[in-house]
Write a structure and sequence with these properties.
Two copies of one chain form a homodimer. With about 350 residues, chain A is an alpha+beta fold. The first copy, chain A, has helices spanning about 15-30, 70-85, 105-120, 175-185, 205-210, 225-240, 255-260, 280-290, and strands at about 45, 50-60, 65, 70, 90-100, 125-135, 140-150, 170, 215-220, 240-245, 275-280, 300-305, 315, 325. The two termini of chain A are about 30 Å apart. At the A-B interface, helix 1, strand 1, strand 2, strand 5 and helix 3 of A face helix 1, strand 1, strand 2, strand 5 and helix 4 of B.
């Protein structure tokens, strides 16, 4: 660390190493409490006898419309998914808008239409909201915060602490579609095969998975920072080794090509309609089969397992027979994709 | 409305007439559901047997440090107060940061310290958070969203629908301190008597009020848009007349002077540690007495009552014996004060 003035950089918002340092070194340290310290996608909050979860996310995606979605759809599904991967049914959502002066009213109308449609599809109610306007040049079109509340039913308890050696790792579908769709649109890349965001609500599939198995240990959606970041969080949080097989990682051919051109590993690219489930070995096949029955899980597959070899590390068994450590990435590969 | 392209203006975020039109004409219309439609400071959400409230607010105050507070303190107390005025005990808060690239890390640390101290004072837990970074020039230092959950105890039910003719209107203290403190700081006005924000958590006082009376009909805090906007919401929502006496409106002398100089009526200026309570006439004196026992209510007083004369209107009995209609204001008198 230099002796000079420390400033916030784009990398602090990337989901990578600096984001992690900001969260643990500043927010966790100063706002210390055991619920926040769990660093799950949503906070467990017991109120009376009710096991609830509570989560928040701000959306600053640029541009606000992109192939397969827009900031409104993303804001609803993103928060719904953060609730769902806790094994909780999404119930209520809040919506806070920060609008830049001069925004076209008809675009805002389109976004609100999209929010409305997404809330209906995800069967959540938007019950409270807020609108702020900032001067031209003090914002960037539109930022949206959504917070959400869900309820855990049937005594489900998911968390990194449940993970055991031998557990199987399931990924619900292809990697990087969302991040590359936004990037392509923003940078004006032209590709014959149009890549669209995978933004989708996951509760229906999660609900089906929870019905078939009581041995799902943990779930999370690989959004900002992608699968690579998620698996590192699992390795760090569980203190086990996360061993995955490169040959099993599904990446669309056009996504892979574009990643190669721009020098990004798809393992770090954001997804908005995917999840990783870590499941006891005897239930893994059954869970996988259920997932394949949902549109969001058609391409689900086993990608690896929890081992003891390199504790706290993510190891990729490469297709040429080597073993590569997948670290948290440093830098800001793909800013503002959510 | 002109035939040209409609755009979002600063007035859409002012809390005045255009804000109201944006909320009812766009958000309520498209996201229509009965909970949102109540337009209270927090949404009532019944989960199982638990009567909860849920609220959200984004904070874009400029500058982020001002006399008597900062954006962090404001973000915690603002959301805590939106819960409290529903008669609900604040429990859990979320915190979403949108940071502009280049922000001084030590300033962010100070804000997080302030959030931590405010949460402790208000006895709420910050249980979930999110951080986004936007490029230099795409934000303005720091925006914070806080959402919050509270619980209603002892079957309290407050709401505009409870208001009856003859009810008394109590205001907890002086008008306009917060808005003028922020404005003075932003515009570099120098005054001998420094005006400081009234930002403060109100739950302790509210809790005391609820203990002494079961006949508090409604409470709300006069933030953006001030007392004038709040009373118009009451008049519109109840369809009665809100009659207040100018002589009873407490305004600090230095706040009044500055308002005169810049041509703003203090009745429209934001407060961040004040509330209005509408109480049945037989309990009004007792509630007032309790309020005066708290630091936040020392200057509480009766300012008027609910009548039938001019339905849906707010009337001010002036000190010279006239009657003036207080409308919702049009324009953006004081942008970015919260």
């Amino acid at each position: 660390m230099s002796e000079g003035k420390r400033i916030i950089s784009m990398s602090h918002g990337s989901g990578g190493k600096l984001s992690h340092e900001l969260i643990t070194g500043l927010f966790l340290k100063k706002l210390n409490n055991p619920i926040l310290a769990q660093l799950e996608d949503s906070a467990f909050i017991q109120i009376g006898d009710l096991p609830l979860v509570f989560t928040t996310d701000s959306y600053v995606v640029k541009p606000i419309f992109f192939p397969g979605g827009d900031i409104g759809k993303l804001a609803v599904y993103g928060t719904v998914n953060d609730i769902s991967v806790m094994g909780a049914r999404p119930l209520f959502i809040s919506c806070g808008f920060i609008i830049e002066e001069g925004m076209d009213y008809t675009l805002l109308e389109k976004i609100v239409d999209s929010i409305s449609a997404a809330a209906e599809k995800a069967r959540v109610k938007i019950v409270t909201g807020d609108t702020k306007v900032v001067e031209r040049g003090s914002g960037d079109g539109l930022f949206i915060n959504t917070s959400g509340i869900g309820i855990i039913e049937n005594g489900v308890h998911l968390g990194i602490g449940n993970i055991k050696v031998g557990d199987k790792i399931i990924l619900s579908g292809t990697l990087g579609d969302h991040g590359i769709a936004v990037l392509s649109c923003r940078e004006g890349f032209n590709f014959q095969s149009e890549i669209v965001s995978d933004s989708a609500p996951l509760w229906d599939m999660v609900s089906g998975m929870l019905k078939i198995s009581r041995k799902i240990r943990f779930m999370r959606d690989p959004t900002r920072g992608g699968l690579g970041t998620l698996l590192n969080e699992v390795a760090l949080g569980s203190s086990f080794c996360v061993m995955i097989e490169e040959a099993q990682l599904p990446v669309r051919e056009d996504v892979r090509s574009l990643c190669e051109i721009i020098g990004i590993d798809p393992i770090y690219v954001a997804n908005e309609g995917k999840l990783v489930a870590i499941v006891a070995p005897d239930d893994a096949e059954a869970v996988l089969k259920v997932m394949k029955g949902y549109p969001e899980g058609i391409e689900a597959r086993l990608i690896g397992e929890i081992t003891e070899e390199h504790k706290g590390k993510v190891c990729l068994a490469t297709m040429v027979g080597g073993l590569r450590i997948i670290d948290m990435f440093v830098g800001d590969q793909l800013p503002r994709i959510c």
